[in-house]
Automatic annotation (TrEMBL):
Membrane-crossing residue ranges in chain numbering: 9-29, 44-63, 101-123, 155-173, 205-224
Keywords for this protein: Cell membrane, Membrane, Transmembrane, Transmembrane helix
Membrane topology: Multi-pass membrane protein
Every Cytochrome b561 bacterial/Ni-hydrogenase domain range: 6-184
InterPro entries noted in UniProt: Cyt_b561_bac/Ni-Hgenase, Di-haem_cyt_TM, Hydrogenase_cytochrome
GO CC aspect terms: plasma membrane
Family matches, as Pfam families: Ni_hydr_CYTB (PF01292)
Protein name, entry field: Cytochrome b/b6 domain-containing protein
Organism: Vreelandella salicampi
Length: 225
């Protein structure tokens, strides 16, 4: 068995912070929102938090530690199909970071979440809440974004369901992904194909500070605006 440090502290905090914010956003819009007096406001604040986290992650995906970078886990169609074939044959290659299919799932979820958070800035319930950018492009655009916002929320439920299913499948294959996202360390039975070229995970602390400040600035701008 091999123990490999994969996920830096920033990726892990982002992940669990995003989980909490998304759960809160769904709870406050799909239920009565108790005990909050104005659940729609809490929903909006959760959305602003998601937006700040995503701002951090998009930047960290470009300048962060090796396994956090998009270029590390996004592969072309041929590589993705080859990995999928291996999964079907129950002979998948071992990856320390995201495998090819998981990498594309991460990207799709990031894009969907980004659209959800950004579109929310333009919305209004005409009673208690009005997004900070509502009316910027006119009422027609806001109404269209409202429809897409609702449709995309359904897509997100599907994507989250697929993500949870993948966690279960990997657990059955011997990979404890939840534990890895808590400790940062993956335990693998076979040498991962993406580890030798990367070596030790190196955190670029200067860029980490920039990315964190960008994320916090985005969230606080809308929280306090």
């Amino acid at each position: 068995m091999r123990h490999i440090f994969v996920w830096d502290i920033f990726v892990r905090v982002f992940h669990w912070g995003l989980v909490g914010a998304v759960i809160m956003s769904f709870y406050t819009i799909e239920t009565s929102g108790a005990p909050f007096l104005f659940p729609i406001e809490v929903h909006a604040q959760a959305g602003y938090t998601v937006l700040g986290l995503l701002a951090f992650r998009w930047l960290w995906g470009l300048v962060g530690s090796d396994y956090a970078r998009f270029r590390t886990f996004l592969v072309g169609p041929s590589g993705s199909l080859s990995y999928a074939k291996g999964v079907i044959q129950r002979l998948p290659k071992s990856y320390a970071g995201h495998n090819p299919l998981g990498g594309w799932m991460v990207m799709i979820m990031l894009l969907s979440l980004t659209f959800q958070a950004v579109s929310g800035l333009f919305l209004s319930d005409d009673i208690f809440f009005q997004g900070p950018l509502h009316g910027l492009f006119g009422d027609d655009v806001s109404k269209t974004l409202m429809s897409w916002h609702r449709l995309n929320s359904n897509l997100l439920i599907v994507l989250i369901g697929l993500h949870l299913a993948a966690i279960v499948v990997h657990r059955l294959m011997g990979e404890k992904l939840v534990k890895a996202m808590i400790t940062g360390v993956k335990t693998l039975a076979h040498p991962p194909v993406d580890h030798p070229a990367l070596g030790e995970v190196k955190i670029r602390w200067g860029w980490a500070l920039v990315a964190v400040l960008v994320g916090m600035t985005v969230t606080l701008t809308f929280w306090l605006g």
